[in-house]
Amino acid sequence: MTPVERRVRDRIIQSGPISIAEYMEIALGDPDHGYYRTRDPLGAAGDFVTAPEISQVFGELIGLWCATMWQAVGAPDDVRLVELGPGRGTLMADAIRAAERVPNFLAAADIHLIETSPTLRVRQHDVLEALHPTWHEHFAEISDGPCVVIANEFFDALPVEQFVRTSSGWRRRSIGIDDAAGDLCFVLTDGGRSIPVPFHDAPLGVPCELRPDAEILVDEIARRITREGCAALIIDYGHAVRAPGETLQAIRQHRFDGVLTQPGLADLTAHVDFAAVAEAARAAGADAHGPVAQGVFLDRLGLGLRAQYLCESTPERAEEIRAGCRRLRDPDKMGKLFKALAITPRGSPPPAGFGQNSARTC
After folding, report:
1. Residues 127 and 90 sit within 8 Å (Cβ to Cβ)
2. How far apart are CA 92 and CA 277, in angstroms?
3. Distance CA 159, CA 248 (A)
4. Which one, 92, 269, 275, 350, has the greatest CB density within 10 A?
5. Mean pLDDT throughout 197-220?
6. What average pLDDT does range 279-306 have in this prediction?
7. pLDDT at 362 over 70
8. Which DSSP category does 92 fall into?
9. Which pLDDT score is estimated for 209?
């Protein structure tokens, strides 16, 4: 039994079944034993690989996108460049290396990292020390002023709730302890939350996923952008249309694992509901653009041109560069499942990558 499972069991014994969101909060964020608090999960020796680790082109294009959004609001002398869940710092390092070519952007950019993992903060410090970033636990800690926010594979790990329509009404899908076997198990408990209209006719017994924490965070980011200016870019795997169905999964050593099998030792994620993200942003007074498939988004930013340049300038790495870009772009890899969504102040034109004529903007 893992230390996290022991804490989960103690919580259930004390107060009864817990929600899936509470289970995820403990499994991923427990201060002493939580998955993200205690390890570097990235890379071949970890549990998963993200786009910045696959190709430098990803971060470079994102960096230039950030610089164009800064220019779009008049290139203010002071802008907060904020990354949620910056991993090893790879994306930010690549982004700054590309964006520093834009006159005055690096001098204006004040870098802020939202990170709760002590282990990853050390890795980020090693990579980004020369940029003098500031670390925070929460987005609300960022000081006032224009900001450009990046969130790559961040929202998928925020806790989800699951609700199931039964013949007697809606019930919350929770986690309890099986009386016979003594194992953690899923159970149905009383609801306690209004269900969005798109789920009202969900088939009986099919889980519907909600992510209240994500909607709260999007509201906070959107209000900040509306008030202070600039933009946010969210890239993650997920769906564009709200629909019933379970996407909660556990990943360990690059393979699927049981969600309840070894809490604290596996990553827990669920697909991002981009329709809910866009709805939350618009309700806060901002505009939401997209989602756009990642492959389309990166192509519009100039993925092919940048890859071609790198292949020609470093021919010994050409096949590695091409393979990385194919993985990011191809529909049967990351190009379709992963999507991009931008949040801008109300009335803003579509940002680079989100308009039909935005190819090669960066």
Report:
1. yes
2. 23
3. 10
4. 92
5. 96
6. 97
7. no
8. H
9. 97
In the chain, the amino acid numbered 169 is: G
257, 144 Cβ separation under 8 angstroms: no
* HSE value, Cβ hemisphere, 13 Å, CA-based, for 297: 28
Write the single-letter amino acid at 127.
Answer: V
User: DSSP label at 77?
Assistant: S
Query: pLDDT per residue over 94-151, tens digit each?
Result: 999 999 999 999 999 999 999 999 999 999 999 999 999 999 999 999 999 999 999 9
Tokens of 359: 């190819």
Distance of CA 96 to the CA centre of its chain: 20
Which of the four pLDDT bands, split at 50, 70 and 90, describes residue 358?
A: very low
Q: Are strands 134-136 and 147-152 parallel, antiparallel or unpaired?
A: unpaired
Can you tell me the distance from the alpha carbon of 157 to that of 249, in angstroms, rounded to the nearest whole number?
Answer: 10
Closest-CA residue to 12 (of 163, 184, 268) = 184
Model confidence, pTM? 0.95
- Contact of 111 with 81, CB cutoff 8 Å: yes
Query: Would you call 17 helix, strand, or coil by DSSP?
Result: coil
Tokens of 19: 């929600």
| Closest residue by Cα to residue 135 from 154, 157, 111 | 111
Domain 3-158+211-345 has CATH 3.40.50.12710: yes
Angstrom distance (rounded) from CA 233 to CA 64 = 12
Q: Where are the beta strands (DSSP E) in 21-115?
A: 79-84, 109-114
